[in-house]
Design a protein that fits this description.
The chain is of the alpha/beta class. It has one domain (about 25-270): TIM Barrel (Alpha-Beta Barrel), CATH 3.20.20. It has eleven helices and nine strands. The radius of gyration is 19 Å and the shape is globular.
């Protein structure tokens, strides 16, 4: 009986070691608690497409933070776009990472005048106090994308952090750019039938078991799966900083406030900023 208890305690301690986030830089993340972050800018995907300069300008004008996605073209230009495929947003059946920037300039976002923007042009739209969350997409040459993003942000004077679903990206930041606030994105991979990851890796990512490898400053977890036990331990027992993505209503936002400190939203306009409550 005693041996079983000892083994159980060791397993519990090992589990906590695996999922424990870094908690020493929560003060640096405080500005992200004071503004909601507009998911891919403040868009409606009618006349204001997501991840467009127009959407980012509108988010800044309304005082929101911004979450956006970066990918790398064949000619090493860093652009802001979410999907692997161009089809949903441009009608072109081709992957972005197979295109040059010059080619991308020939496409329009959702039949508007907006084009897929350079990341450098998006940065010009932001204010220094705009909280910026940069997602490094896992597609294509993700380490090169990370390096390019880091290089571009060296002289940026504003507030930013970087995150990714890919633990290798977050690990790269931990090892090579430890000064950058980093976040581990996750969700319930076990229910994702489109993912080609192995069952073991899906399990590890879902339950944050690779946090020991990345030691993220925050965990960004799909807000509909906030009951995940590993997330609840990170949020509660570990007192980790947690980001909710993507909140779709005021009702959902209010329900999630006891589990998360930062909120990425779209499809509605929050009643007021968190610092006004």
């Amino acid at each position: 009986m005693l041996k079983m208890m000892i083994v159980l305690i060791i397993l519990i301690l090992l589990y906590l070691y695996l999922i424990f986030p870094k908690v020493s830089r929560k003060e640096s993340l405080k500005p992200y608690t004071e503004r909601y972050a507009a998911h891919r800018g403040l868009f409606n995907n009618v006349d204001i497409p997501e991840n467009s300069l127009k959407a980012f300008r509108k988010a800044v004008e309304n005082g929101y933070g911004i979450e956006l996605d970066v990918q790398l073209t064949t000619d090493n230009r860093l652009v802001v776009f979410h999907d692997a495929s161009l089809y949903r947003m441009t009608g072109i059946d081709k992957n972005l990472t197979d295109c040059s920037y010059e080619e991308l300039l020939t496409y329009h976002l959702l039949d508007t005048d907006e084009k897929i923007p350079l990341f450098s042009d998006v940065l010009k739209v932001l204010q220094p106090d705009t909280p910026l969350i940069i997602e490094i997409k896992a597609e294509g040459r993700f380490i090169e994308t990370t390096k390019k993003t880091v290089e571009m942000m060296r002289d940026y004077k504003g507030l930013y952090n970087m995150e990714s679903f890919n633990p290798m990206v977050v690990r790269y930041l931990r090892v090579h750019e430890p000064q950058i606030i980093r976040g581990q994105l996750s969700y319930n991979y076990l229910k994702d039938e489109n993912s080609d990851l192995s069952p073991a890796l899906k399990f590890a990512l879902t339950y944050l078991l690779l946090n020991f490898y990345t030691r993220p400053d925050y965990v960004a977890y799909d807000c509909v799966n906030y009951r995940n036990p590993s997330f609840r331990i990170v949020s509660g027992l570990c007192r980790g900083f947690c980001v909710a993505w993507t909140v779709k209503s005021q009702e959902e936002l209010e329900k999630l406030k006891k589990h998360y400190q930062c909120f990425i939203f779209d499809s509605f306009i929050p009643d007021k900023q968190p610092y006004s409550s």
